Amino acid sequence: TLLLIEGSTVPSGETLSADICIVGAGAAGLSIAKTLNASPYTVLLVESGGFLPRADSQSLYDSEFEGLLSKSFPNYLSVSRSRYFGGSTNCWAGDVAPLDDIDFEARDWVPHSGWPLSIKDLWRYYDRACDWVEVQTFDRNPIVNQILARNPFGRFFDTRVEPKTFFHSPPTRFGIKYRSEIESSKNIRLVLNTDVTKIQLDKEAKSVERLETAVLGDSKRKFQISSKIFILATGAIENARILLLSDDVQRNGVGNENDLVGRFYMEHFRVSGHKLILAESERKTFQELVGDFRQKERKAHKIFRLKSEFQRKHKVMNSGLYFQEFHPLTEEGRGKLWNSISKLGDLPKGEPLYESKITVFGEQVPDRNNRVVLSKSKVDLHGQSLAKLIWNPVEADEEATQRLMLFFGSEVGRLGVGRVRLFKEERGFDDGMCSLGFHHMGTTRMHQSPEEGVVDSNCKVFGLDNLYISGSSVFPTSGFANPTLTIVALALRLWP
Q: What is the DSSP string of 299-335?
């Protein structure tokens, strides 16, 4: 039996069969496939692209926009995704961190919040996920622990703000790192350059019978895939799109009886422009805590976040901030600084001053109106509707980042270690100071009830006994941590 299959070599009308079929060979799909390697199960891993990028494959990510993205980020979905073996790990930056405890909680000030599991349910999978993205786990990095043990800036933190560690993956390119393991597997068959065009349910809409496919570069060549279990792992946009396209048995699309597929799309937004000014003596101490901790090719940095108990008390969203490299403040800049903070007390006038740009990033309120739908005007090379993304931020999305900056700035001033300069009190997402994380989340959200979610706590689609979804599309809330580590952890939990 061939273990590497080019879609173009499969005769039209033929059926490929396996115990488990995984659609998508990105971080989620490859994590599951690696877990199943050398298992007693036969596996089909289906990838839209090949081992290298192709323009025709990438064109399937062309999309339509409505809302802020249409004018601010017109190439948003094409530049943030890679449609070939390894998925978007081919273009990710490599920052990893777990979600926070509060991200999993049902918060009365955050509509539609709450996961059907807790962070404790994920910790052992986070530990394994760290190995897969090539970083040391959060409790066994000796350099980080040594620095934290000295607590060089401990007096800085009160009941409002605390540090959080982010590690930097090399970044791990899953398609390169794990290709040989997949190719040499005895029980995994990799199917390349093959697009899943439809999920075919049985007449009772109780289970998936098969997948319909079309071959990249030869749309007339179509074959089927049958399996006992199907796992959809194509990203938050495509997971929703494939479900919505498959509408012959369930009228509004697979898993969409309650009009939830595609809804609650979320992003991480980032606001830059604020400045932290420190004297030379404080800069060295501060940078030791928050700067890069280097360990060979691996490194980490600390960000600041609002403590969970403070968020609960004051009902704000989760957000964090980090700092870029410090630069000496020019004489002109120093003069402007003294004029602007003269009423706030003195900085050490005998020492050189340094400034660093602050970037604030935060979670987004889950909003059912932010959603993926099918385009009514654009089709892909197989003649199927492309995705249309409708996305707009709301006032609460900005509030948490504003309050974090105010709290952080007041702490810096209270301790007399420096000053925070806010670029302006009022700002908007369309004024050029805001960017996005290019993190696609939501659209097939996890919940304990089918009235509020598409999948259950085990990522199984409600009402279907053999369809699972993997990836950040199942996130009910986003937190502010980059999603890849949680994507891998959830994938490992899917098949422990």
A: EEEEEEEE-HHHHHHHT---EEEEE---EEPPHHHHH
- Residues 153 and 286 sit within 8 Å (Cβ to Cβ): yes
Residue type, 310: F
d(CA 278, CA 328): 10
Query: Cα–Cα distances in Å, from 59 out to 79, 181, 215, 362?
Result: 11, 29, 14, 30
Cα separation, 144 vs 136, in Å, equals: 10
Amino acid at 111: P
Output the DSSP codes for 175-220.
HHHSHHHHHT-SSEEEEESEEEEEEEE-TTSSSEEEEEEEETTBTT
**Residue count (the chain):** 496
- The answer to whether 381 and 48 are in contact (CB under 8 A) is no
What is the reported pTM?
0.92
Which two three-digit tokens encode residue 377? Answer: 């005007």
- φ, ψ for residue 113, nearest 5 deg: -85, 165
User: What separation, in Å, do the N-terminal and C-terminal C-alpha atoms of the chain show?
Assistant: 27
Spatial CA neighbour of 219 closest among 199, 245, 192, 195: 195
**What is the block-wise mean pLDDT of the chain (496 residues), using blocks of 10 residues?**
86 97 98 97 98 95 85 78 97 93 96 96 93 79 54 58 85 97 97 98 98 94 98 98 98 97 94 84 74 53 86 90 82 58 54 85 94 97 96 79 82 78 60 78 98 98 99 98 97 90
Amino acid at the residue 250:
Q
Whose structure tokens read 């994380």?
Answer: 437
CA distance 311 to 398: 15
CATH number of 4-494: 3.50.50.60
Residue 31: predicted pLDDT: 98
Residue 294: what pLDDT? 44
Residues with Cβ < 8 Å from 264, sequence gap 6 or more?
Answer: 112, 366, 367, 368, 370, 371, 442, 443, 445, 476
Kindly report the number of other CB atoms within 10 A of residue 250's CB atom.
18
- Spatial contact of 86 and 175, defined as CB atoms under 8 Å apart: yes
DSSP 258-277: TS-TTBS-B--EEEEEEEEE
CA distance 267 to 246: 26
Give the number of other CB atoms < 10 A from CB of residue 187: 16
**pLDDT in the model for residue 402:** 80
The pLDDT score that the predictor gives to residue 295 is: 44
DSSP classification of residue 398? H
User: At 80, phi and psi to the nearest 5?
Assistant: -105, 5
Inter-residue contact 439 to 235 (CB < 8 Å)? no
Phi then psi for residue 492, to 5 deg, are -65, -35
Interatomic CA distance for residues 197 and 248, integer angstroms: 13
